[in-house]
Amino acid sequence: MATTNEGSEGTARRGRPRSFDRDAALRAATMEFWDRGFEAVSIADLTRAMGVKAPSLYAAFGDKKTLFEEAIESYLREFGGFIDRALEEEPTARRAVARMLHEAASWQTLPGYPRGCMLISAATNCTPQSNEIAQGLVERRNEGIAAVERRIAADIEAGILPGDTDAHALAVYCTVVLHGMAQQARDGVDRATLETVAHTAMAAWPAETGDIPG
């Protein structure tokens, strides 16, 4: 009898298995936050989109802020990874940024998905209570600038770009273009136009003067 009771108690402590697909629920939450932003999406909106009850949402994901942070990570894995791939795979900073901007034109206008970039649009017009969310996205965007700046600085050091190139200013410029493209995509600008913007933006880059790897 003791063994049976212990097993029953253990089962009770473990609770029932989840009756929903956590990955699908997270994806639905990501789409809501991406489309409407953190502040505008309520728990009722999330439970409806995710197909779960509020207690299940809290048990699986924690509170709304915690769910949003996980949604951001999910977004970056599925939709934002093209930036890191370009910076890692291309032989020069210029080619990496050109690829990044051209791929942004595609990713930010995917049919059937919210337009633009979640890192830019998901925490606009936040109340003071959500300042932590907004500041977290600022930090992530600044990390992106720093990553581009490091690639530019490496090319300056290698003699690929002129020695008087301002790595920080050029990295900020590229990010301004990227963010502007995201907003234009959200406003309905088509992919072809954004591709042209990406091409035009690269005309501002200093000419590569040294030996190009690969």
Automatic annotation (TrEMBL):
Which PROSITE patterns does this one have? HTH_TETR_2 (PS50977)
Instruction: List the keywords (alphabetical).
Output: DNA-binding, Transcription, Transcription regulation
Checking InterPro entries in the record gives: Homeodomain-like_sf (IPR009057), HTH_TetR (IPR001647), Tet_transcr_reg_TetR-rel_C_sf (IPR036271), TetR_C (IPR011075)
KW DNA-binding (keyword) present: yes
Write out the GO MF terms. DNA binding
Query: Looking at the UniProt feature table, which residue ranges are given for the DNA-binding region?
Result: 42-61
Transmembrane segments annotated in the record for this chain: none
The record's Pfam families line, in alphabetical order, gives: TetR_C_13 (PF16925), TetR_N (PF00440)
Q: Which residues form the HTH tetR-type domain?
A: 19-79
Nucleus as a keyword of this entry, yes or no, is no
Q: Mind telling me what this protein is named?
A: TetR/AcrR family transcriptional regulator
The scientific name of the source species is Streptomyces buecherae
| Lineage, top ranks | Bacteria, Bacillati, Actinomycetota, Actinomycetes, Kitasatosporales
